[in-house]
Predict the structure.
Amino acid sequence: MKRAAAFRLVLVTAPDSKTARALAKAALTARLVACANLLPRIESHYWWQGKLESSAEVLIVLKTTRAKLAALEKLILAKHPYDTPEFIALPLAEGNSKYLDWLTASASREKPLTGTDLH
């Protein structure tokens, strides 16, 4: 295990899979994240404008570095259809060394990594 203070998991909800895929693709294309996981069919319950609401959403889990976080937030807020999109960044404590090296390289390279780049 390797210390992982320089990394973040970012949670973003989207109204549907099409929007979630577009947000994930934009973040990946901009090289702001190494990976985006889409978890479809979550059920969200929340307060909005003084009323209790619920809706089906897609949760996007984005893996990035602390250095890319501000740019990622700016991109998500600019492209998201919600007035107030969820954007929560969680710090990581530790992680597998090879995975964290891949995450760093993938979020900063001009070209995608291949499996041989990590050996």
Remarks:
- Residues 2-118 form a domain with the Alpha-Beta Plaits fold (CATH 3.30.70.120).
